[in-house]
Sequence to fold (346 residues):
Amino acid sequence: MKINKTWRIAAPLLMVSALVLSGCSANSTTAADEGSKTPGAIVLSNSFIGNAWRQTMVDDANKSADEAKASGDVVDFSVVNSNNDVAEQISQMNALILKKPKVILILAASPTALNGVIQTACDAGIKVVAFDATVTAPCAYNMAPDWVAFGEETMQVVVDRLGGKGNVILVHGVDGTDVDLGMSKGWSNVIAANPGIKVVGEVSGNWDDATTQTNVGGLLATAPKVDGVMSYVSAYGAIQAFVAAKRPVPVVYGSNQGTFLKWWAAEKIANGYDTESAMEGPAISQAAFWIGVNLANGKDYPKTLVYPTFKITNENLDELAAATAPDAFADHVWTKESVDAQWPAN
Fold:
């Protein structure tokens, strides 16, 4: 598989708290006015906005939408957020369908619970692109890493760093999402194959540093010696829990956020700290957006589009840590041209 080699630093521009956000200019038309016209409107149904990754994801999508509107590829782009509430996301999807956009991008709260409303959208002639968290609706296009395989790969890194033996804590993400379900399965597969690894605690971190720090800190009050932590996105929160508890920081699988990268780079110099970090960064929304643009303009794709993760090791850490602001992510950057090169249309 080809992998886009360009990277950049992605940062959240603001805390997105409103239910409806728009990437439109002041004189742009609404999806209801223009949705049935070529090139048409694209909308994003986002299940959760409560962490830096999701905020940056929305910002990235809006940046690509601004480019697409300037080039005439789309007439409108808007975003709705559903607070990780499946019923609310279904209701919002039904409202979006009535506006008749050309494409709905969806980051779904569940891999199955939205299948009915997704099918309704498809029956109305709307293309649906699920990204990050895949769905099982047959008519939808899915863009994501293989989450089970990615969970296995990242858990194996921790197991190898521990020499196949030790106590670990698992930090899960947003409950019920395809991402968390897949990664958890991958972690479990590797743990089952390595009987020397003992899980001494599991928490939900919502892929958020503050939540992770609080919940891991609660575990540490009574946990035995911890040798490793398997987390995703919120590694820095896990580290801060150990620091606050005055415990040695174990092997923590990383995140590509600047807070973690800068901590890791400093610890590598000071103490030889060795780990790895890999993520599907928030710029996946840009890739999904440009796929949506192409679908809206008559192109087609396979239903499954495998997304490349962005890996950081000791070898490329220093450059990325220096360039990444604390609240930013080292990530791919996707343009229409790079998306076309990575995923040629049928």
